[in-house]
């Protein structure tokens, strides 16, 4: 189990700070200007847990870190503004979404070299690779774009597109059984953003689930049993006069738990506490056993850890009407909060080691990585 007193946060120091000085190339907004502020935006790990891959949004590169020694082992220049990446199950290739270049870079991990650039739709911001490693699904989140592009990893080519029910698919996730693709739709201008459940075999949307009064959808993960998904987002209060920011009267910060069965519950649960707000929740990671959820809170420079047994117990025991009421209860988070662990500045993405014993956070503004020892039994 996780015990608050046993959770340790260790900031990776100068030896593993993400620095543009290591990069063979790096570009800003399409120019050829190197940067010393790489902006690590996304972090993922090799299947064997040996290597971390950090996508540097401003440095236009991917940094390799040895997870055991916590040392930078290399940096690979990719295209403009990489925002997400995924490793093939065999650990041979890294697929990197280059948002501003509208492309995916294929990086040979052993050679530490980009070997191909694949053109995709507008602003690719999320990617997942199928369990068999044969297919990559790329969320193209441009404000007037509603496509998930499908890449054949054997041919390293885009082969088709899956069309979502609305614009702005930001991130995707694959169900544990490999049959369903879920996409969060961060549709510009809508205050009722939503989630598509897509049948992978047919490529068709089978259900669209609305998260009422939501904005800034950032990440989505499945529970290991596939019965629920979690989505990070904010809740705007634009129907209220702006008198004060306290007590969640402008925005609240939420994690929504959605039952994956057709017509299931949508539980918009608060992450905020009174006078202690989880501003701008971003990337997530789920403990391999489904016991804990780790959330990078970009605006408060910390990782929030939730007890999923308590979260799901609340969802199962409450009606939809009761859950709708609980959304604004700023004392509720204490029922399922395990800890809030300080990190570097602006953690935009988190990932877990395969055994769940370490959580890694990519800190966008301080250009480094935080290591959290979870002490999971």
UniProtKB/TrEMBL annotation:
Its recorded name reads Hydrazine synthase subunit C
Renumbered to this chain, the signal peptide range is 1-25
Q: Which NCBIfam families match?
A: beta_rpt_yvtn
Has the keyword Protease been applied to this entry?
Answer: no
Q: Which SUPFAM superfamilies match?
A: Nitrous oxide reductase, N-terminal domain (SSF50974)
Entry keyword set: Signal
Q: Where is the YNCE-like beta-propeller domain?
A: 40-212
Gene expressing this chain: hzsC_3
């Amino acid at each position: 189990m996780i015990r608050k007193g046993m959770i340790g946060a260790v900031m990776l120091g100068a030896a593993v700070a993400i620095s543009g000085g290591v990069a063979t190339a790096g570009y800003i907004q399409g120019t050829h200007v190197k940067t010393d502020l790489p902006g690590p935006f996304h972090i993922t790990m090799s299947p064997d847990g040996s290597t971390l891959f950090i996508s540097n949004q401003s440095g236009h590169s991917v940094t390799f870190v040895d997870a055991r020694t916590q040392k930078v082992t290399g940096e690979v220049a990719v295209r403009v503004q990489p925002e997400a990446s995924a490793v093939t199950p065999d650990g041979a290739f890294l697929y990197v979404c280059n948002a501003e270049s509208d492309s995916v870079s294929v990086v040979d991990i052993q050679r530490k070299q980009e070997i191909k650039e694949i053109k995709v739709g507008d602003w690719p911001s999320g990617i997942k690779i199928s369990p068999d490693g044969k297919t990559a699904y790329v969320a193209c989140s441009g404000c007037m774009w509603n496509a998930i592009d499908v890449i054949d990893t054997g041919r390293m080519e885009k082969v088709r597109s899956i069309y979502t029910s609305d614009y702005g698919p930001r991130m995707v996730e694959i169900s544990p059984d490999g049959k369903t693709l879920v996409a969060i739709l961060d549709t510009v201008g809508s205050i009722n953003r939503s989630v598509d459940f897509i049948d992978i075999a047919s490529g068709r949307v089978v259900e669209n689930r609305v998260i009422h009064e939501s904005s800034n959808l950032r990440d989505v993960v499945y529970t290991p049993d596939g019965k629920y998904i979690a989505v990070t987002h904010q809740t705007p209060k634009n129907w209220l006069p702006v008198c004060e920011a306290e007590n969640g009267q402008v925005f609240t910060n939420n994690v929504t738990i959605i039952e994956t069965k057709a017509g299931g519950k949508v539980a918009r649960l608060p992450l905020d506490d009174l006078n202690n707000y989880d501003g701008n929740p971003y990337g997530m990671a789920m403990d391999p056993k489904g016991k804990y959820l780790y959330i990078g809170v970009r605006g408060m420079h910390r990782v929030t850890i939730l007890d999923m047994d308590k979260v799901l117990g609340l969802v199962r025991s409450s009606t939809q009407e009761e859950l709708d009421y609980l959304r604004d209860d700023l004392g509720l988070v204490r029922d399922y909060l395990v800890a809030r662990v300080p990190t570097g500045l602006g953690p935009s993405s988190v990932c877990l080691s395969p055994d769940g014993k370490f959580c890694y956070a990519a800190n966008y503004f301080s250009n480094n990585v935080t290591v959290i020892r979870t002490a999971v039994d």
